[in-house]
Write a sequence for this structure.
């Protein structure tokens, strides 16, 4: 008995079905989309293209420490899971008073997504400028929050 192409295919498929291998002949399911790939706008903030930057002076009073904890807590909520964010410690001008270092709080609030503008101002400015340019060249917006 000579099998033609279509008969051979039927035989292979029947064997696959009988042996529980039917799945090997079907297309694999595409990987699920990241939730951020379909994230919606939040007001005018586009979580697919925009950057949120939180600047904290932490000088000379402690009110920024509360704001750091609050902003960090909000960004950990599912609603803000797709927001690209970076925080900056020591974003102050010429005001007097002592700077209040709080790296442990920044670590808890923002993980690795923070810069130390007090200890390394030049590097912080350069990294922000580079990041801002990338966002703006991709038609995104940079939203800067100033605490203090």
């Amino acid at each position: 008995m000579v099998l033609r192409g279509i008969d051979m295919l039927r035989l292979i498929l029947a064997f696959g079905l009988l042996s529980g291998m039917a799945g090997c002949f079907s297309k694999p399911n595409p990987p699920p989309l990241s939730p951020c790939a379909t994230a919606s706008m939040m007001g005018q903030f586009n979580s697919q293209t925009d950057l949120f930057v939180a600047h904290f002076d932490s000088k000379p009073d402690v009110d920024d420490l509360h704001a750091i904890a609050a902003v960090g807590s909000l960004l950990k909520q599912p609603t803000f899971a797709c927001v690209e964010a970076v925080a900056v410690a020591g974003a102050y001008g010429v005001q007097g008073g002592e700077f209040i270092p709080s790296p442990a709080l920044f670590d808890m609030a923002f993980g690795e997504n923070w810069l130390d503008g007090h200890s390394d101002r030049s590097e912080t400015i350069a990294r922000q400028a580079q990041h801002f340019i990338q966002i703006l060249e991709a038609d995104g917006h940079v939203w800067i929050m100033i605490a203090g």
The beta strands are 41-42, 45-46, 51-56, 84-89, 114-116, 142-147.
